[in-house]
Amino acid sequence: MTIFIAGGTSGIGYALARHYLSKGYCVGICGRDLTKISEKNDENLKAFQADVSDMNAVLSTLHSFLVDKNGLNIFINCAGSYAEDVAGRISYDEAEEMLQTNILGTVNCFEAARKVMKNQKKGSIAVIASVSGILEYENSSLYTKTKRSVLQIADAYRRALKPFGISVTAIAPGYIDTEKLRQLNQNDLRKKPFLTDVETAVSIISEAIEKQKKLIIFPSKMKWMMKSLSLLPSSLLNIIMFRKAKWMKND
């Protein structure tokens, strides 16, 4: 099996890379900062420096990884950018990075994988979105809107690639106990409900890809909470989510 993971140099992406390496698979990863990689001595792991917002970089990196491989089985896009803007201000640079990484980067990864897998007539593509993306209301954060876009983009590619034997799996997780989440919250995760450990998240994600699920939302308690909230009128949801954001920022 040959696996490529964009945004695979840290967090859930790197955890997935280690999972597939443990099975003896050949794994390629890319990210903007290769110094994040803690283990570099596995001959089955190939690391590349690339930014998903640069289509040419993604495609050339993927081709470099596959130069001596017999096709690509799985492509996973774990790249993402986050900045909170519901209960506070967001800078132009933060907004630009989220748009470039979460939306343009998602399309670039789908396109790169599509170009390779279309000729194979098989393969699996997966993308990490967010459980927040299942909510639609006027004043949702830019991050939530970009992750909702990711889910819509995945649905569009799923329909387009199905005739070519290519499956598309969208992953919408709640809070995962990664180093990045701890950094963003000063190592205080008490206000992160239904927290999932990385090992459990990897198991759920890899199984969903293997079974070619269309959409997986986890953990189940977060899934049903968000689905319940999605039934509320937009005006009420705006108030609830704004107060929730203020509470989480200790305002």
UniProtKB/TrEMBL annotation:
Keywords of the record: Oxidoreductase, Plasmid
A Pfam family hit: adh_short
Molecular function terms, GO-annotated: oxidoreductase activity
GO cellular component labels: membrane
UniProt keyword DNA-binding present: no
Keyword Kinase among record annotations: no
Domain of life: Bacteria
Cross-referenced InterPro entries: NAD(P)-bd_dom_sf, SDR_fam
The family this protein is said to belong to: Belongs to the short-chain dehydrogenases/reductases (SDR) family.
Designated name of the protein: SDR family oxidoreductase
Organism: Chryseobacterium panacisoli
